[in-house]
Amino acid sequence: SSVLQKIRKEIDYHFDDFQEIVESESFTKVFTEGSKSSSILARPPKGYEIDNPAIEYLKRKDFYTLKYLTDKDLQNKKSVNSILEGFFAVKPVIDFINRAFK
């Protein structure tokens, strides 16, 4: 199965875990727009029903997070801390996705 199919299966089987991560305060504080996708299917992918609680994530073709940093942010003495905060906040999502390949 494809990479995306494996990720979808992991989200479907463990949606409570995934939802807890992407809705956690530590994640949403840093990534105020949440988890994003540049491409979303109009219909559920093959093998999934429209009433699946995870359907909005299962219809995604990709996943990413976004945190804008201004020039001022980057020139701030604490910019490294701000960047690291983003890495720490997204690490549970990466760990979750990586579980699909174990």
Low-confidence stretches: none
Rounded mean pLDDT score = 94
Number of helices: 6
Number of strands: 0
End-to-end CA span: 14 Å
| Helix/sheet category | mainly alpha
**Order of helix and strand elements from N to C terminus:** HHHHHH
Helicity level: 40-55%
Polypeptide structure, described:
By secondary structure, the chain is mainly α. The protein has 6 helices and no strands. The longest helix has 21 residues. It is elongated, with a radius of gyration of 15 Å.
Write the layout of secondary structure elements.
Layout: H1 3-13, H2 15-22, H3 25-30, H4 55-58, H5 71-75, H6 79-99
Condensed summary:
By secondary structure, the chain is mainly alpha-helical. It has six helices and no strands.
Keyphrases for this structure?
single chain, 102 residues, mainly alpha, 6 helices
